[in-house]
Amino acid sequence: MVKQLSRKEIFLVNRVLKLFIERKLKDAEKTLEKLELTMAEKEWSKGYFNALQGITLALKSKDSRYLYLTQIPMDDSKKIDDIRKKFLKQTQNSLHKDFDKGFFSAWSDYLKLLKNKIAKQRNSEDTSLLKY
């Protein structure tokens, strides 16, 4: 899904997602502010950014309204990959508008990085998410 992003946006998205994984939410919010200034005014980009903002809110909150995020097993790479594949499927659904496809892409990217983190912990593998 990174085909929709510029190199600078990819750099900032990688940073935000890694900060999410590390639970450094204040730093993630600062990086999101920078990302907002660089993101294109396309519907896909708006959806992607909206999802990143939502992930931030969900990670900060203990509120049950964000129950979906709390249901993701943060240590089960198979379950995370299954959920990620569901999001990926939605990005390819022709019934969805570009905004929705961007939204689901952001969630997919976040879950990919989360899965990679688990693999790194087990195998000391690289956790790079997006490639330039």
Counting H and I runs of at least 4 residues, what is the number of helices?
Answer: 6
The average pLDDT score comes to 85
Biggest sheet descriptor: none
Identify the overall geometry.
Answer: globular
Structural class, from helix and strand content? mainly alpha
- CA distance, first residue to last residue: 12 Å
Helix content: over 70%
Unreliable parts: none
Gyration radius over CA: 14 Å
How many β-strands, per DSSP? Answer: 0
Q: How many independent structural domains?
A: 1
Query: What percentage of amino acids are in beta strands?
Result: under 5%
Order of helices and strands: HHHHHH
Structure description:
- This protein has 132 residues and is mainly alpha-helical.
- It has one domain (2-123).
- It contains six helices and no strands.
- It has helices spanning 7-21, 25-38, 43-60, 67-71, 77-91, 98-123.
- Helix 5 runs antiparallel to helix 6.
- It is globular and about 40 Å long.
What are the defining features of this structure?
single chain, globular, 70% helix, 132 residues
Please specify the SSE layout and strand pairing.
Elements: H1 7-21, H2 25-38, H3 43-60, H4 67-71, H5 77-91, H6 98-123
Helix pairs in contact: 1-2, 1-6, 2-3, 3-6, 5-6
